[in-house]
């Protein structure tokens, strides 16, 4: 890669900001505007047109911005090879799982997508869905891997742990998102055969975890083709993507009166993500070392003989 070719940090921050703002507007529309049709009726003609556009494509916008933010970040900090060899398997394999799922019911269960998430590939899966698999999976994998390498374990265990915990973080986000997004006033998908977990079949979680494991494993193996140390990153950006999307899902669930999945997601998703983030912060480690050295120095001074 030529010097100066990589995007600047400002570009990914702007995209992240747009991603979060788009989610906030989406929440306002779904939870505040739609339940109050008199508000829509009182809008001027321009406002009504804008509202129709936002309802038709607003869900697609936040996913496109999230994908773009993660792609720019991955390109800048990891280089084109690692970015592309994660994004391409994530998009391709998740799309394959979704097309299989909407056609046969395997591996997630029997469901179908409605409108609001963009053009449907083969008339079945909105093109934005594999993009969300990529940016959430990429961020979850990086959070876990950057944290695990601070433990001093071997590379193979770092990779296995990142695949396992990354897939867990990804699935934990779906614990919270899926019930709400399929049971809002304007649902984005529906379950033809509802399951026992707030309308979702338990099979859905196995499908999410398994799909994450597959594309993260493929990406890990491709990264090994050009072995090199990961740069010394702090996963603040991946954590911001993960937590903001979890918050979006949690607010949607709260609006639908669905509470247990939020606690489950906090325990299995947010808590491990924050733990790995804490491990990965170099300054946290140096601060702890400095404090330990200060305590040892003080003890040695206290034990020194008085002359």
Q: Could you list some keywords that capture this structure?
A:
single chain; 307 residues; mainly alpha; two-stranded antiparallel sheet; 10 helices; 4 strands
Can you offer a commentary on this structure?
- The protein is mainly alpha-helical.
- It contains 10 helices and 4 strands.
- It has helices spanning 9-33, 37-41, 45-78, 80-104, 128-148, 155-181, 203-224, 236-255, 260-280, 282-303; strands spanning 111-113, 120-121, 125-126, 189-191.
- The strands form 2 sheets. It has a two-stranded antiparallel ribbon with strand order 1-4. Strands 2-3 form a two-stranded antiparallel sheet.
- Helix 1 packs parallel to helix 8, helix 6 (155-181) packs antiparallel against helix 7 (203-224) and helix 6 runs antiparallel to helix 9.
- It is globular, with a radius of gyration of 22 Å.
List the helices and strands and how they pair.
Elements: H1 9-33, H2 37-41, H3 45-78, H4 80-104, E1 111-113, E2 120-121, E3 125-126, H5 128-148, H6 155-181, E4 189-191, H7 203-224, H8 236-255, H9 260-280, H10 282-303
Antiparallel strand pairs: 1-4, 2-3
Nutshell version of this structure?
The protein has 307 residues and is mainly alpha-helical. The chain has helices at residues 9-33, 37-41, 45-78, 80-104, 128-148, 155-181, 203-224, 236-255, 260-280, 282-303, and strands spanning 111-113, 120-121, 125-126, 189-191. It has 10 helices and 4 strands, in the order ααααβββααβαααα.
Estimate what percentage of residues fall within beta strands.
under 5%
SSE arrangement, N to C: HHHHEEEHHEHHHH
Q: The biggest beta sheet, please?
A: 2 strands, antiparallel
| Structural class designation | mainly alpha
| Number of separate strands | 4
Cα separation of the termini: 63 Å
Principal-axes geometry comes out as globular
Q: Give the integer mean of the pLDDT values.
A: 87
Number of domains: 1
Number of helices: 10
The radius of gyration computed from the alpha-carbon positions, rounded to a whole number of angstroms, is: 22 Å
Low-confidence stretches: none
- What percentage of residues falls in helices of 4 or more residues? over 70%
Across the major sheet, the strand order is: 1-4
């Amino acid at each position: 890669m030529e010097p100066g070719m990589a995007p600047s940090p400002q570009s990914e921050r702007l995209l992240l900001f747009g991603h979060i703002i788009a989610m906030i507007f989406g929440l306002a529309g779904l939870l505040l505007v739609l339940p109050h049709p008199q508000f829509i009726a009182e809008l001027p003609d321009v406002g009504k047109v804008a509202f129709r556009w936002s309802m038709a494509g607003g869900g697609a916008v936040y996913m496109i911005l999230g994908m773009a933010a993660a792609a720019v970040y991955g390109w800048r900090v990891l280089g084109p090879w690692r970015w592309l060899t994660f994004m391409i398997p994530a998009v391709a394999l998740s799309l394959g799982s979704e097309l299989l799922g909407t056609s046969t019911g395997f591996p997630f269960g029997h469901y179908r997508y409605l409108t609001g998430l963009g053009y449907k590939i083969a008339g079945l899966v909105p093109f934005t869905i594999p993009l969300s698999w990529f940016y959430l999976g990429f961020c979850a994998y990086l959070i876990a891997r950057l944290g695990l390498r601070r433990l001093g374990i071997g590379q193979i265990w770092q990779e296995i742990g990142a695949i396992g915990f990354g897939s867990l973080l990804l699935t934990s986000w779906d614990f919270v998102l899926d019930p709400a997004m399929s049971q809002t006033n304007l649902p984005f998908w529906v379950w033809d055969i509802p399951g026992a977990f707030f309308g979702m079949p338990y099979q859905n979680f196995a499908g999410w975890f398994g799909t994450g494991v597959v594309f993260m494993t493929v990406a890990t193996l491709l990264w090994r083709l050009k072995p090199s140390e990961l740069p010394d990153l702090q996963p603040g950006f991946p954590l911001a993507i993960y937590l903001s999307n979890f918050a979006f899902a949690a607010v949607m669930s709260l609006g639908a009166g669905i509470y247990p999945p939020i606690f489950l997601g906090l325990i299995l998703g947010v808590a491990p993500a924050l733990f790995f983030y804490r491990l990965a912060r170099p300054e946290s480690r140096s601060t702890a070392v400095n404090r330990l050295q200060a305590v040892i120095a003080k003890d040695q001074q206290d034990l020194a003989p008085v002359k």
